[in-house]
Structures are given as structure tokens and as C-alpha cells.
Design brief:
Shape: globular
Order of helices and strands: HEEEHHEHEEEEHHEEE
Organism: Microthlaspi erraticum
Strand order of the largest sheet: 4-5-6-7-8-9-10-11
Number of strands: 11
Family: Belongs to the PAP/fibrillin family.
Main location: plastid
Number of domains: 2
Structural class: alpha+beta
Strand content: 25-35%
CATH class of the largest domain: Mainly Beta
Oligomer: single chain
Keywords: Plastid, Transit peptide
Largest sheet: 8 strands, antiparallel, barrel
CATH architecture of the largest domain: Beta Barrel
Protein name: Plastid lipid-associated protein/fibrillin conserved domain-containing protein
Distance between the termini: 117 Å
Helix content: 25-40%
């Protein structure tokens, strides 16, 4: 009985391809039949080296440390850039240029992304005290500014927010200087109460308001509703950033407020 060795068909006849590479442990077999359907097999072998894994761990640890240092530095830098951007705009009350407004709001959003107090209403000791408004998107423009005398003889001074946590009260104080009345100063006080409605927000309810001294009241008497309409803090207020000396908040209308901690006068 004889044996016969059968050779595979020639490359040209079978339209097949056999490729072997032992150097990189890769084998590719491809055969095409008469219907031109192709079947391919590919084998790629990867060897993991222990020293490679160790390098990954070392890099991850170093990367985490760098990110923490970068975040801490970045918050400080953002605040410095924000203070610089707020110079010379009088808290934005009489409007700012669109590019400046965009710059300020971009910095505010960067701070909000790095909020160290994500649940501020559960840390009320950080909220209580006196805060000074250094920026707001609420503006007094055109006829409103003229009616309130803020264009000519009345100058708007500090805007303060005094928060009494124990009483659940806020007192907003607007300082005024009036030329020609020999007044050292005058003020508009708005008293409101607040209640916590979430871990980040409070509901503010207007209670009363007064203007002192009487001469200043006579100036604003006809426009009290206008004055309240602009500066009354009533409604939802969400604290979006809070640290030891800076607070950022947004009201129910989307207005932005940036406040800096001050000693109680």
C-alpha cells in the first residue's frame, strides 16, 4: 500500500495567501474562494512586563499629587484674576462692557467648579456675618439711574449684607452720599428673613425697609418702589461658592452676586 503526499493548491490557482512571521508572533491566514469571500485570522501576542505596571502606579501617584497642587494654586490664581477684573467697574452696577462681563463670569464659573463648600446651608457658621458686594449683574441704567439721582447728586457707597444665623434674618444696607445736603452719609436698610430649602439654597422673604436720615427719604420717596424693585433681595438665593472670605450666589432670576467678607460695622 503506497502513500501519496497531497500538496496544497498553488497561490495563483486558489487565490489564497499564507503569511507567517515568527519574529513578532504574528500569523495571518487568508483564503479566497470562488465567491470571493475572505476568511482571516490574526494572532497578536502581548507580553506585560512587571516593571511597566510599576511605572504606571508611580505615574498615577505623581499625577494625583500634581492635580491637587494645581487645583489649590488655581483657586488662588482665579480669585486674584477676579479681583483684578473687578477693578474700576463700580461693582458692575452701572453696567460693564460685554468682553469684561464675559471675563468676569468665566472666572466666576471656574470658582464654582472648585467650590470647597458644596453644601453651604449645612455649614451656617461659614455664612453668618457681614459681606460686602463687590460685583453683581444687576444694573441701574438709563431712566432708572436718572430717577434715583444716581447720575447727578447721589453717590452709591458700599452695599453690605449682614446675616444673623440665630435669628434667621438678613439686613441689606445700601450706603449713600448726597452732595449739597451736608450729609456725611445716609443708608437704605432692607430687613428680610430666610429659610433653608435645600443644601445649597435659601428662600428670602422681605419684611421691611427704612431710609435714614429723613432728608434722604424725601429724595427717594417718589421712587421707593423702583428702589425696592432693584435692590430687594426677596426670592430664591443659591450659594454656588463659599470659602472663608468669598461668597458667590445666584438669585432666582439668574443674577450673579460676588461678596467679600467684612467685619461687622
Amino acid at each position: 500500500m503506497s502513500s501519496k503526499l497531497i500538496h496544497p493548491p498553488s497561490m495563483a490557482a486558489s487565490r489564497g495567501v499564507i503569511s507567517t512571521r515568527t519574529g513578532n508572533a504574528k500569523v495571518l491566514l487568508s483564503f479566497s474562494n470562488l465567491t470571493r469571500k475572505t476568511v482571516s485570522f490574526s494572532d497578536n501576542s502581548i507580553r506585560l512586563r512587571p516593571m511597566f505596571v510599576g511605572n504606571v502606579k508611580e505615574q498615577s501617584s505623581a499625577s494625583a499629587t500634581n492635580e491637587e497642587e494645581e487645583e489649590e494654586t488655581t483657586v488662588s490664581q482665579i480669585k486674584n484674576e477676579l479681583y483684578e477684573a473687578l477693578k474700576g467697574i463700580n461693582r458692575g452696577i452701572f453696567g460693564v462692557k460685554s468682553d469684561k462681563k464675559t471675563e468676569i463670569e468665566s472666572l466666576v464659573k471656574l470658582l464654582e467648579c472648585r467650590n470647597p463648600t458644596p453644601e453651604p446651608t449645612e455649614e451656617l457658621d461659614k455664612i453668618g456675618g457681614c459681606w460686602k458686594l463687590i460685583y453683581s449683574t444687576i444694573t441701574v441704567l438709563g431712566s432708572k439711574r436718572t430717577k434715583l439721582g444716581l447720575r447727578d447728586f447721589v453717590s452709591l457707597g458700599d452695599l453690605l449684607q449682614q446675616i444673623d444665623i440665630a435669628q434667621g434674618k438678613t439686613v441689606h444696607v445700601l450706603k449713600f452720599d448726597v452732595r449739597g445736603l451736608n450729609l456725611l452719609d445716609g443708608e437704605f436698610r432692607i430687613v428680610a428673613s430666610f429659610k433653608i430649602i435645600s443644601k445649597t439654597s435659601v428662600e428670602i422673604t422681605y419684611e421691611s425697609s427704612t431710609i435714614m436720615p429723613d432728608q434722604l427719604m424725601n429724595i427717594f420717596r417718589k421712587n421707593m418702589n423702583l428702589l425696592l424693585g432693584i435692590f430687594n433681595p426677596e426670592g430664591l438665593f443659591e450659594i454656588s461658592y463659599l470659602d472663608e472670605d468669598l461668597q458667590v450666589g445666584r438669585d432666582g432670576k439668574g443674577n450673579v452676586f460676588v461678596l467679600e467678607r467684612r467685619e461687622i460695622p
